[in-house]
C-alpha cells in the first residue's frame, strides 16, 4: 500500500477552502478539512451583499473541495496533541484525527468592545449577547441579523464601529430599509485606510444612503429589557456623553483578532497571530498557519487577498513535498516562499450614484515624501498618492477608479515610477490622470 501523507486543515473559511481545493488532487496526500461552520465555504467579503438582500447565500459559496478531500463540517477542533513527528487533533464530537502535517486556518474572532450591558453571565450557557445584538463575521450572523430586521415593522439599528466592516454593515442595513446609525469612535470613517478628505466623502455618501453617521463618539453601554421568556433584548445604546439612541438591533463591528487559542494551548509561538516563516511554518515544522490567524514578518493582514496568497503558496509547498517528511523540499532553492502581499482595500457602495473606493499602503506622508492630490467634491472624486523617491508608497482613490489598476500595479510591483516627457512640467501628476501613467 502506498503511504500517503496525512494533511489536516483546521478551518474551512477563505484560506482553508482554497488550500484543500488545490491539495485534493495531489496523489500522495490524504487531506481532511475540519470546519466549525456547518455550511459550505463562502466568500466572507460578500456578506454585506447578502445582508443587503442583493445576493442569496448560495450565490456567494466558494467552489467545493476537490474529490478525495474528506470534509467534516460542523466540527470544531478543541485540542492539538503534538508529537515529535505529526500528532493528532481532538474535536468537539470526541473524534481524534491523526496528522503528519497540520494547517491552522482558523481566521479571526470579532473584537467585542468594552461596553456596559453587553454580556450577561448565565451559569448554564456561559456569556451570551442580548437579543438584537450581533457580530458581523459569519453567514449565520448575517442571516440572523437579516431575519431580525425582517421581523420588525420599523427596525432601527446602531452599528458600532466605522471601519470597513461597520461601513459595509451600515450600508447593507440601510439598503434593507433599516433606520441605521453608525457610531464611530475615531475622527473619521475607515481611518486605517483613509485620510480625512476621503473619510468625509465616504460619510457624505453614506448619509445620502440614509445612514446617520456620528464620529468621535464612544459607546458607553447598552440598555436592555428582560422579556417574559427571561431573555434580555437590546432597547438602546448610550454614548459616553449620555446621548441615548433607541434601537432594536446593534451590530458590533469593532475589528477582529486572530483566532489563536488552539495554537497557544498547543505551545506554538504566538505573537498577535500564530508566527510563521516564509514557508508558512509555525514554531513546529509539522504545523503551518495561513490566513487571518497567521502573523508573517510581523504583519497581521486580516484581508482576503493575503489569506488566498498564503493558501496558494502553502498548496505549492505541500504538493511538492514527497509522502515522507525527509523528502520535504521546503529549504531547497526554488521552493515556493511567501514574501508578503501588498494588499489593496476596495469598497463599492451601491446607491443612486455608486461610490467606489480603493486604498493601499501608507496614505499619510512622511516628512520627505511627496503628495499628489486631485479633488472634485462636486462629483465626489478624490485621488491622492504618496511618493517616496521614485516609488509609490500609498494612495487613496475615490470616485472614478479608472486609474486604480495602473497605480495599484505600480505599487504592488514596487516599480520605479515612469515619468513620461509629456509630464515634465508636473512630473507626478500623470499618476492620477486617466491611465495612471502606464
Ligand atoms: C463582513 C466582512 C467583510 C469583509 N470584507 C473584506 C473586504 O472587503 N476585503 C478583504 O480583503 N477582506 C474582507 N474581509 C476579511 C476577509 O473575509 C478575511 O480576511 C478572510 O475571510 C480570511 O480568511 P481565513 O480563512 O483566514 O478566515 P475565515 O474566512 O474567517 O475562516 C476561518 C474559518 O475557520 C473556522 N474555525 C476557527 N476555529 C476553528 C476550530 N477550532 N475548528 C474548526 N473550525 C474552526 C471558522 O469557523 C471559519 O469558518 C471581510 C470580513 C468580513 C467578516
Automatic annotation (TrEMBL):
Residues 6-310 form the FAD/NAD(P)-binding domain. Transmembrane segments: none annotated. Its cofactor is FAD. Residues 356-403 form the NADH-rubredoxin oxidoreductase C-terminal domain. The keyword Flavoprotein applies. The lineage of its organism: Bacteria, Bacillati, Actinomycetota, Actinomycetes, Kitasatosporales. This is NAD(P)/FAD-dependent oxidoreductase. Pfam families: Pyr_redox_2, Rubredoxin_C.
Amino acid at each position: 500500500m502506498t503511504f500517503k501523507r496525512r494533511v489536516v486543515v483546521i478551518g474551512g473559511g477563505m484560506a482553508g477552502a482554497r488550500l484543500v481545493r488545490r491539495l485534493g488532487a495531489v496523489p500522495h496526500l490524504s487531506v481532511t478539512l475540519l470546519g466549525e461552520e456547518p455550511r459550505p465555504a463562502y466568500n466572507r467579503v460578500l456578506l454585506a451583499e447578502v445582508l443587503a438582500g442583493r445576493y442569496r447565500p448560495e450565490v456567494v459559496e466558494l467552489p467545493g473541495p476537490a474529490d478525495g478531500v474528506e470534509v467534516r463540517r460542523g466540527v470544531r477542533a478543541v485540542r492539538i496533541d503534538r508529537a515529535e513527528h505529526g500528532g493528532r487533533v481532538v474535536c468537539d464530537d470526541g473524534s481524534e484525527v491523526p496528522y503528519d502535517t497540520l494547517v491552522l486556518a482558523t481566521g479571526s474572532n470579532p473584537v467585542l468592545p468594552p461596553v456596559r450591558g453587553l454580556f450577561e453571565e448565565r451559569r448554564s450557557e456561559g456569556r451570551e449577547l442580548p437579543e438584537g445584538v450581533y457580530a458581523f463575521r459569519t453567514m449565520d450572523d448575517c442571516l440572523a441579523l437579516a431575519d431580525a430586521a425582517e421581523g420588525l415593522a420599523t427596525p432601527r439599528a446602531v452599528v458600532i464601529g466605522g471601519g470597513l466592516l461597520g461601513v459595509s454593515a451600515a450600508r447593507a442595513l440601510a439598503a434593507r430599509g433599516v433606520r441605521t446609525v453608525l457610531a464611530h469612535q475615531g475622527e473619521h470613517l475607515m481611518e486605517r485606510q483613509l485620510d480625512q478628505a476621503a473619510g468625509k466623502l465616504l460619510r457624505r455618501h453614506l448619509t445620502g444612503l440614509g445612514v446617520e453617521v456620528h464620529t468621535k463618539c464612544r459607546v458607553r453601554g447598552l440598555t436592555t429589557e428582560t422579556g417574559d421568556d427571561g431573555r434580555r433584548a437590546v432597547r438602546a445604546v448610550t454614548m459616553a456623553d449620555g446621548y441615548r439612541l433607541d434601537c432594536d438591533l446593534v451590530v458590533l463591528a469593532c475589528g477582529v483578532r486572530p483566532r489563536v487559542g488552539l495554537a497557544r494551548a498547543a505551545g506554538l509561538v504566538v505573537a498577535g497571530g500564530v508566527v510563521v516563516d516564509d514557508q508558512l511554518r509555525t514554531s513546529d515544522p509539522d504545523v503551518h498557519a495561513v490566513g487571518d490567524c497567521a502573523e508573517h514578518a510581523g504583519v497581521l493582514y486580516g484581508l482576503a487577498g493575503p489569506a488566498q496568497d498564503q493558501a496558494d503558496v502553502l498548496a505549492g509547498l505541500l504538493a511538492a513535498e514527497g509522502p515522507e517528511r525527509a523528502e520535504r523540499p521546503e529549504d531547497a532553492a526554488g521552493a515556493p516562499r511567501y514574501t508578503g502581499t501588498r494588499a489593496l482595500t476596495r469598497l463599492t457602495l451601491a446607491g443612486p450614484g455608486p461610490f467606489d473606493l480603493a486604498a493601499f499602503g501608507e496614505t499619510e506622508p512622511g516628512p520627505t515624501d511627496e503628495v499628489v492630490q486631485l479633488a472634485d467634491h462636486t462629483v465626489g472624486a478624490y485621488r491622492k498618492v504618496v511618493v517616496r523617491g521614485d516609488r509609490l508608497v500609498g494612495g487613496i482613490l475615490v470616485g472614478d477608479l479608472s486609474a486604480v489598476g495602473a497605480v495599484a500595479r505600480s505599487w504592488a510591483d514596487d516599480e520605479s515610477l515612469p515619468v513620461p516627457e509629456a509630464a515634465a512640467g508636473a512630473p507626478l501628476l500623470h499618476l492620477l490622470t486617466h491611465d495612471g501613467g502606464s
